[in-house]
Amino acid sequence: MGLAIARALTRRCGFELVSSELGGVPGTAPATVVETARPTAHSDPTYVEDGVIPYCVANVAVPRTPTHAITNVTLPFIARLAGMGVARSLAEVPVLRSGLNVAGGHVTHERVAEAHDLPYVLPTEALALATT
Question: Is pTM, for the whole model, over 0.85?
């Protein structure tokens, strides 16, 4: 799955487009807002709208569990950034560099540059320019 671009879909095209993107499975695609969607709860999870039955139960957070999960995943990167510094970490750790959008005033993420009609610069080049 590629980078999702946020968008809003009107009542007229929303359900058809979202459904077709998911291979006919009703639901909302990532980063998509449908005009007719409204939050529901597990006690009453669906409603009928224009002949479509949406399911819009929001994510239910369980205290502590998500916090522990995100901490376990991100802490090694935070420790590396703190120990090596930002510039060296970005230069030596490709996965950190892949999350870089802007460095030294240059857009370093192709899709971000494309979305904003700005020039794209390789992250390694932008980082080299930023340190000179």
Answer: no
